[in-house]
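Issue 218. Parser rejects a valid record. Input:
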Amino acid sequence: YYDHTDAAVVFKYIDHRDGTTRYIYHGNDGTSFPWNDTAQLNYLLPEVREAVIQQILRIARQFPIIRFDAAMTLSKKHFQRLWFPKPGTGGDIPSRAEHSMSTKEFNEFMPEEFWREVVERVAREVPDTLLLAEAFWMMEGYFVRSLGMHRVYNSAFMNMLKREENSKYRQSIKNVLEFDPQILKRFVNFMSNPDEETAVAQFGTDDKYFGVCIMMSTMPGLPMFAHGQVQGFHERYGMEFHKPRWKEQEHIDFIERHKREVFPLLRNRHLFSDVEHYHLYDFTSRDGNTDENVFAYSNEYDQKKSLIVFHNKYEETSGWIRWTYYAEKDESGKTVWFRRDFAEILEVPIEESAFVIFRDMIQDREYIRNAKELHEYGLFLELGAFKYAVFMDFKVVHDDNNESYKNLSSYLQGGGVKNLEKERRRNMHRAMYESFDSLVSEETFLKMFSVSDDTLMLDKILEKLSIFLHSISSMDVNPNKINDLIEMYRQDVLKTISLFDEKFTIRHDQFYILYLWLVLRRTGRSFIEEYDLDDQLVDKINVYTQSDYGSFYTRLIKFFVSEQELWKHFETDTCYSFLEKLFEIEEVRELLEFNWFDDTLWFKKEAFDEFFILLEITQTISVMTTSQKVDKQVLHKKIQDWSQKIRKAYAFSDFKVEHLLDGLK
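Output the parser choked on:
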């Protein structure tokens, strides 16, 4: 038995009290080897059935959930087939053909289904118990419809989706919805169990696996994950295993993808688990036929709507989600079919000025569709092989006088973006964003290095600056002041170049950060935030520096754009008091990553290095280009002296804030 070469159909039982010898059958489902750790009971005997029911009731009083293994073998149909086959059928278990029995005779011994009796007795005597049955051989529907089992393993989910028998599985869902939608809640959907190959062996580790897993997580009913499934283990575990037999490592990327895509859905199971608002849609392809390989269904909970789409085929497809069909009984009991429109279910107004915004939780992208078009055509989607989406956060917006939503929808052409509201603003002010992008490009920045030798290079930079300023003149900048601003920028660049020729030496990437600060210092921090330039800056910096520090540098730029007159403290404060005040600013504490450990306040070395070199340079440029009547040379000398003191204290600080400040006293 244990090396899977053979197993006895019966075992020998000797009663040493009186020497009686008997041969007792092992449990057997007729498909493989007998289960040699079991003895088969004769459920035709009423006393046996009652004894088993009493045992179930005893367990139910101790545990709220009971799982019945291979429950289908005790249904009347299969119990007779296995143990008391009809005359002439031969039987599926050796030697049982000689115990054949007619259906009439069998029914006299077992007048009703054993599991029906179990369900009724448990409901009556231990009503708060959940009964879960493992029932294969396509008996899932029978167990919940006729026998009243609370939950039943839905092997069709695993097998049909694995074999891509998509039309059959869609039809099975339709059959349940026609008979009684509530039954859909009773299915336990799974991708593997101890009797099957592991999930990764059956579905792989890529899009097909996750598409099926997304369906399992969002269908009504109960999703069940196999042991080791999330970790990507290939070993097939048995319940008798005390420990793994294979030495496998956890598939870290596989686990992380579960965390990103699957776990958030499981934490929101209440949005998907019921059937009152469950609708299964046809996916109509371009040729007008239904693509049976696409599963599309919606649900709703507390007015929160969701739409799940999965293309379970290794090919590309495109089409519309529009119609769902449902059945109701008329007065005569006859089934009558109706259809509803997807836009109607979404409760979308039939207005050309209305638009529907929604988010794909998998890709974290937002989409926009015209409400009237949804009513007329449905939702158009293009799906690659095994691609899937979970659309949520549906909301209706109405267009403004500028038709900004209409223009955005036309511009995106059905595509998605991270943030639609940001993209709408970008679309409204596209000229400004494009001119800014050109101004802060690497090509423009590199011209800075030739300014001192070629004044034409400065003119080219200022020309792009002029285009940028004119693009925002209708929003924020008075056109009459643009020439004055350009002249200020000219002086900023010239002074910066002269300072670097004389005083400063910094890395190339630090110079680029300074250049971005120079571009933005005259527009102000409010402009950066109002027009959401953060993402554009982060992307530019990440690409130029070939790092992921774009977010930190952007925050640094914004801070120094808003704090261009810190040098005023140099006129009255000491270096110690200045730094002490600076460290009281929450934004500075966050930039330097202040943190407590072992009752000590620490700062991060790398953040400090970048912060203080930019502090010194930006304050020097601000002093040298200020229009205020101050002694610029004296302040410049003070900035240099304080910078040297800070660097010296920093060198002996061990990255402790207290030691750094003490070094300045």
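Fixed in the parser; the record now loads. DSSP finds 28 helices and 18 strands in the chain.
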